[in-house]
Design brief:
Length: 125
């Protein structure tokens, strides 16, 4: 199943659920309100959209309250977002993307070693 298209606001909810699920809308509202200032109605609207997109599964807790949990993995969504970004911004070309981030970001020696290892593996395959 392809990853659903998730908006920036929806991504915040998904991150909270990837960290700990299942959760109710009320639990998510309490967790996210300090940083987002979202009312519970906003959280419920976003949850509904994510359910429609197939990103969340709905269940019930012991008291019969609706709960939400991810139906797709974070890794699947990250890959989809990365692929979309590569296509939109760099027209699918990986070299300019890598050059942009390598030149515009402070990389630790360990980061450089890992990137070299990945590039070497890419040459072999």
């Amino acid at each position: 199943m392809p990853a659903p298209d998730i908006s920036e606001s929806e991504w915040i909810l998904m991150e909270a659920l990837w960290d700990s699920a299942p959760k109710t809308a009320s639990e998510l509202t309490r967790q996210l309100a300090p940083s987002t200032h979202w009312a519970e109605n906003t959280v419920r609207t976003l949850l509904g959209r994510l359910v429609e997109k197939g990103a969340l599964a709905v269940g019930e807790n012991q008291s019969g309250t609706r709960t939400y949990q991810p139906a797709v993995s974070r890794e699947t969504c990250v890959k989809s977002e990365g692929d979309s970004f590569l296509q939109r911004v760099f027209r699918g070309a990986a070299k300019p993307l890598l050059m942009h981030f390598a030149q515009g970001t402070k990389l630790s020696p360990e980061d450089v070693r890992e990137l070299k290892k990945l590039l070497d593996q890419s040459l072999k395959s």
